[in-house]
Amino acid sequence: MAASAGGRPARIAVPDILAAGRELGMRRLSVKAVAVRLGVTATALYRHVDGRWGLERLVGEDILAQLRLPDDPAHGTEAHLVSFAMRLREFVLDHPGLAGYLQVLFPRGDGGQRLLAAEVEALGRRGYAADAAIVLSSAVASLTIAMAASEENSIAAETADGDGLERERAAVWQRLSRDDRLGPAHAMLPRPSRPEYVRLLLTASIRGLVAACPPGRPVAEMVAELAGIGEN
After folding, report:
1. Which InterPro entries is this protein grouped with (predicted)?
2. What is d(CA 153, CA 114) in angstroms, rounded to the nearest whole number?
3. How far is 23 from 95, CA to CA, in rounded Å?
4. Is 61:109 a contact under the CB 8 Å cutoff?
5. How many C-beta neighbours within 10 Å does residue 19 have?
6. Angstrom distance (rounded) from CA 191 to CA 180
7. What is the rounded (10 degree) CA torsion for 201, 203, 204, 206?
8. Alpha-carbon distance 145 to 100, whole Å?
9. Which residue spans within the chain are E strands per DSSP?
10. Do 14-64 and 77-227 show the same overall fold?
């Protein structure tokens, strides 16, 4: 970015905006925050990005461009999707605020579209038609991102007030222990670490998704079957 001189406004370009946005991160990203960091007005940014949506897309897609998804040819569909989910989770947690960006709309740009295309190709090698691959990979991604967002909130709470959160947890456990029905059952439950719990839950969910959407099954047939479950 060229420094202002002689009272003239500083000149900025898209790379300057991107660099400032990456430094801020998705969680703190805003037009105002980027403008302050660059020493310009918000109006100056609007000449280069389409407001908040354009700024988020610029930074978010640049972050997504760094993500590389695993595809071990030895993995069947279930194992592949678990590896995909765990890599996506790790990447999202490494970039606070990215989960919220992905939850609003995906794909928004080239970075997200590249990831979707790569996963459709990977599932295609496992016998899936493109439409079924989009449905399956999108479902796994949605579950993974939602869980990562929940984890991100927990991590933020621990960082902000770890002692307070621990007191809340202790109070919950004490309340459950006093319940004649819930207490004994809760005491018998395993206590996996957060990553272990996430992996177990995602694996179970993926197993159900693959059972509902095996290779070769038409998407319309799957949707019709699932839509009728639980209806009176």
Report:
1. Homeodomain-like_sf, Tet_transcr_reg_TetR-rel_C_sf
2. 28
3. 11
4. yes
5. 16
6. 20
7. 120
8. 8
9. none
10. no
Q: What is the phi/psi pair of residue 106, to 5°?
A: -150, 135
Domain range annotation of the chain: 14-64, 77-227
Mean pLDDT of the chain: 91
Query: In this predicted model, what pLDDT tens digit does every residue of 138-185 receive, in sequence order?
Result: 999 999 999 999 999 888 888 888 888 889 888 988 998 898 898 898
Which pLDDT score is estimated for 19?
97
The CATH superfamily label for domain 14-64 reads Homeodomain-like (1.10.10.60)
Residues 179, 185, 187, 189, Cα dihedral to 10°: -150
Q: Tell me the per-residue pLDDT of 72-115, one tens digit each, with 9 for 90 and over.
A: 999 999 999 999 999 999 999 999 999 999 999 889 899 999 99
Half-sphere exposure in the Cβ direction for 141 (13 Å, CA):
23
Query: Which residues is 2 bridged to in the sheet?
Result: 11
| C-beta of residue 103 within 8 angstroms of C-beta of residue 149 | yes
Structure tokens at 74: 């030895």
H or E stretch including 203?
helix 194-212
Cβ within 8 Å of residue 13, ≥6 positions away: 1, 48
Quote the tokens at residue 226: 């699932």
Task: Give the list of residues 6+ apart from residue 72 with CB closer than 8 angstroms, or none.
Answer: 79, 80, 83
Q: Which is it for the CA torsion 34, 38, 42, 45, positive or negative?
A: negative
Name the phi and psi angles at 75, rounded to 5. -85, 135
Under CATH, what is the fold of the domain 77-227? Tetracycline Repressor; domain 2 (1.10.357)
